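User: I'm writing a tutorial on reading structure tokens. Could you give me a worked example: one chain, its sequence, then its tokens, then a sentence or two explaining what the tokens reveal?
Assistant: Sure. Here is the example chain.
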Amino acid sequence: MDEDDEYKITSNINRLIEGTRDFRVVFNALRKKDFMFNDFMVKEILSAEESRRLEYLYLYVTTRGPRAFRHLVDVFNETGHQHLANLLLNSAKRPSFPTKFINGYGSNEPTLDEEYPFEKEVWEVKMDNVERKDWNREKVYKMDSKPRGLALIINIREFVNDIRSEREGSEHDIKRLKSVLKQLDYVVIVAEENLKANEILVKVKEFAKNDMHTCCDSCIVFVMSHGVDTYYTELTQTVNIVGYDGQSVNSQDIIHPLMPQQCPALVGKPKIVFFQ
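And here are its predicted structure tokens:
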């Protein structure tokens, strides 16, 4: 989606939510648009707390490509929400900022490469205590458990018969991730290297069943390997992750065990999944 269009949605998210008369009407109309939502998104939206479904809906629209903004405006007009269509069409564009304030060039602030040099295997995480009294508690995740949550790291470095190039240096990524996550108060679980495709799914399912999730406020999953794009992944905006055996598993299938119906202990908690 164009950055200006995305900004129009996100900057008006509260007004869009307040101005929507019927979630189901808007949601069903959007689903009829070509390739608007994949199955994972539909499940995530419908499984969200009722008070947050519209928020999920509109935020997912911002991830759905260049035609999604036009689809949303059309749906607003089709469902009697012309006031919301006009709101988006007449909203200001995303404000521009000088580049030097974004990347640190020309300022005294260090760049990311300077602050976190690749050669170092242990990075110190700088943390500040944030105290805000104006948050809407219904829209902010609880994040004060000790530990914050569990983190699973899966790394596929080598591949059978060298059918894929070895991911040299990925062992350093694991060391850095472990260091950062532990400083953020996560319990880190590193799976054995070079899992087969089906073993990746087994490991994620085991992780989802860990009893510690009940007393933690979040979870993080890292899956690192080669990826394969197909016509299906392009349509669904997913990725196929290659296992040690050369077989692949779709990112949706990896995320699925963490969904509310499969993992009640993580309902209403942020689940952050990275694919590299």
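What the tokens reveal: The two ends are 22 Å apart (CA to CA). The first strand starts at residue 149 and ends at 155.
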